[in-house]
Every structure is written in C-alpha cells, then in structure tokens.
Structure to design on (312 residues):
C-alpha cells in the first residue's frame, strides 16, 4: 500500500484528492495547518484505516516515520482575500515550506508534486496560455505574494531536480470549483452561488467581460494523480479550456438556482487578469487527460452542495 502525504489536504482540492487516493487503496497522511481548510472536510475520511491527520504548518520541521512514496503539496491559501491577508505567510509557505518538503522528499526518496497555478502567467499577453509562456506578473502588486511565491516554488522544485535528482512534478492549476469550496473565500463561483441562494445581489467585477475557464474538482484530481504517476516533470497546465465570461457564469448561476437576485457591477480589483484559458495540449498528449464534466453539470453539483451547507 503506497503512502502519500497530502499537504493542504483539509482544503478544497486537497480533501477531494485525499478521498480519491484512499479510494485507490492507498494510505494518506494529511498535513494541514487549518488556516483556510476545515477539519469537517476530512471528518468522514478519519474512519478510514489508511488515513491520518497532522495539524502542522509546512514551513515548520515535519518528521514522518516510515516510508513515504508520494508528496502532494497543495498547502497554500488559494483565494485572493485569504492569501493577501498575510502576504508574508503566503511567501513563506511557497519558499520555506517548499524547501522543507523537498528535503522530506529527498530523505524518503519520494516524488513531490507541487500545486502551482495559472497565476504564474499573471495578466497574460499570450492567449491561450501554453507552458512555454513566461508570464506577465506584476512583482510588487497585492497579488504578487501568491503569484511570485508560486513562481519561486516552481524554481525550487527544478533546483531540487537539478541539485539532488529529486523527482518533481509541477502542475499549473487553473480555476477549479466544486463542493467543499469555502462559502466566504471570495472566488467567482462560490461568491455567485452563495449570493444567489441568499437572495443577495451578484457582484460582478467590472463589466463582466473578463473570461475564466472553470474546471470541476473531480477532473482536476484525476489530472493531478495522472501527472504524479507519469514520467513527465511538467510544468503542465491542468484546467478546463471551456472559456466563459464572468457575466455568463453569473447568469448561469441565477438560472440554476432560480434566484431573483440582481447582477450588480463593482470596480475591478487591481491586477485582475482579463483573460484566462489553459492550453492543455501537453496534458492531453502526455497523460491522455482532459476534463469530462461540463460547466452545467459541475455547477449543478456545486449549487446542491451549497444549498445543503447553507441550510445547515
Ligand atoms: N482552487 C483553485 O482554483 C486553484 C487554482 C490554482 C492553484 N490552486 C492551488 O491548489 C492548492 C489547493 O487550493 P484550494 O483551492 O484547495 O485552496 P484551500 O485554501 O481550500 O486549501 C489550501 C489548504 O492549505 C492549508 N494551508 C495553507 N497554508 C498552509 C501551510 N503553510 N501549512 C500547512 N497547510 C497550509 C489550508 O489550511 C488549506 O486547507 C493551493 O496550493 C492553490 O494555490 C488552486
């Protein structure tokens, strides 16, 4: 039975990843500081013999007894208000934390998958974004702690490969959504659904013509595991190329929830990217991976989840 460490395993994507790895018959050690994650996300997994939980910050020394074959590093707050709340913590997580995990991977001869992000492309001048594009990031803006942090995390992974032969995998994750997103984390899909269910105005930044491409979480988790188990190091884009305007997402959410909320427009946040769409040719060719869940199916599942959560 293979042992995986999933850092950030009590978060949105991490909790789904833990569940999938357990369903594959593997062991999971979930390491999470519970900064933005929640114990409730992994409560059901605790009944599983192959699951254990450690409350710990990845930037603090982490000692794990016994063999470890795979480390998935998902630890890092992902929503802008959360990662901007303590930019020093965000940078520390992506630098000191990643170095600590590279050392752990080296000591255990384990493979390390780093959850990177489409934000390494910044406000892209190339569209759709391919892995060869080097990005257009503002290094001193309010988003830089995350964008530049993730860029350094990628650098560190490839330094680990060059210096110590550590087996690394780098996934550039594009916007992902689904059940277990935090209702208050300020991301487009969760914001709209929570506002629609509460009968509040849906706040669209700017005129809503900016685009996003949303990947359902089960597709993302399948991609992460496929990349981990492949021979490719990446960086590799994982996301859904189905590009929609933010205004269209708001309208879909209104239709699906049957809400009578209004759409209102507020000022665009600084450095908000105008267009975002992954080129996933590399993942298709290397992993045979592409998303299967349509936006309509995924939104339905997500609305059902929030209805239940909010009704609790
Ligand atoms: N959700 C997306 O659309 C998206 C897009 C691109 C990249 N990503 C990346 O995927 C990963 C998971 O994102 P998510 O959406 O599940 O976010 P999330 O905030 O729900 O989960 C992150 C988890 O990491 C934990 N964490 C944060 N800092 C930590 C630290 N220093 N030590 C230990 N645990 C820590 C949090 O408590 C939380 O459980 C993140 O690394 C994020 O940057 C996500």
């Amino acid at each position: 039975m293979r042992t995986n460490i999933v850092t950030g395993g009590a978060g949105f994507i991490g909790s789904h990843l833990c569940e999938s790895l357990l369903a594959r018959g593997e062991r999971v050690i979930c390491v999470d500081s519970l900064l933005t994650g929640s114990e409730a996300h992994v409560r059901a997994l605790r009944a599983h013999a192959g699951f254990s939980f450690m409350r710990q910050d990845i930037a603090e020394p982490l000692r794990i007894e016994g063999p470890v074959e795979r480390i998935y590093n998902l630890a890092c707050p992902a929503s802008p208000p959360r990662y901007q709340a303590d930019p020093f913590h965000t940078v520390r997580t992506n630098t000191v934390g990643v170095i600590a995990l590279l050392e752990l991977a080296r000591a255990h001869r384990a493979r390390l998958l780093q959850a990177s992000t489409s934000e390494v492309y910044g406000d892209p001048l190339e569209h759709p974004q391919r892995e060869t594009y080097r990005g257009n990031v503002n290094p001193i803006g309010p988003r830089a702690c995350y964008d530049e942090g993730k860029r350094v995390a990628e650098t560190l992974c490839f330094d680990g490969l060059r210096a110590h032969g550590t087996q690394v995998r780098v996934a550039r994750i594009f916007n992902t959504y689904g059940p277990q997103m935090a209702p208050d984390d300020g991301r487009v899909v969760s914001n709209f659904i929570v506002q629609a269910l509460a009968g509040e105005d849906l706040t669209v930044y700017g005129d809503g013509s900016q685009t996003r491409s949303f990947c359902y979480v089960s597709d993302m988790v399948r991609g992460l595991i496929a990349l981990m188990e492949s021979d490719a190091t990446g960086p590799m884009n994982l996301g859904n190329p189905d590009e929609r305007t933010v205004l269209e997402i708001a309208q879909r959410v209104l239709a699906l929830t049957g809400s009578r909320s209004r759409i209102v427009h507020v000022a665009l946040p600084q450095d908000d990217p105008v267009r975002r769409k992954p080129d996933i040719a590399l993942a298709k060719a290397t992993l045979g991976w592409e998303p299967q869940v349509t936006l309509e199916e995924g939104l339905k599942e997500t609305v059902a989840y929030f209805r239940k959560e909010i009704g609790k």
About this structure: The chain has a mean pLDDT of 95.
